[in-house]
Amino acid sequence: MNDPLSAALAIAQVMLALAMLCTLLRLLRGPRAHDRVLAIDAMYVNAMLLLLTFGMREASTAYFEMALVIGMLGFVSTAALAKFLLRGEVIE
């Protein structure tokens, strides 16, 4: 892999790791449940993007498949948590 792309991917991975640390702080300190749900949502997006950068760096399709699974599970869990906070139950 050429040097500028490798450097850009390394910088992106560091920035995504810092973003995950910030969302972890919001998850632990969030005053309300809504803040915690938003932090979980941001964390799964950051984890998915981090896996995509690993996949680009290693040129492996396994990372892309893992990112797809994280994206699907994260969307479903966010929708379920939002419904639970709104109505108090997930299954009607």
Short description:
The protein has 92 residues and is an all-alpha fold. The protein has helices at 3-29, 33-58, 61-87.
Write up this protein.
Helices cover 87% and strands 0% of the residues. α2 (33-58) runs antiparallel to α3 (61-87). The chain has helices spanning 3-29, 33-58, 61-87. It has a single domain, classed as Helix Hairpins, CATH 1.10.287. The chain is mainly α. It is elongated. The longest helix is centred in the first third of the chain and has 27 residues, at 3-29.
Could you tell me the strand content as a percent range?
under 5%
> Any guess at the CATH architecture?
Orthogonal Bundle
- Low-pLDDT stretches are none
Name the structural class. Answer: mainly alpha
Write down the domain tally.
1
Stated plainly, the CATH topology is called Helix Hairpins
How would you describe the shape? elongated
- Write down how many β-strands occur, each being a DSSP E stretch of 2 or more residues: 0
Distance N terminus to C terminus? 52 Å
State the major sheet.
none
Helix and strand element order: HHH
> Regarding CATH, which class?
Mainly Alpha
Please give the share of residues in helix: over 70%
- The DSSP helix count reads 3
Query: What's the Cα radius of gyration?
Result: 16 Å
Query: What's the rounded overall pLDDT mean?
Result: 90
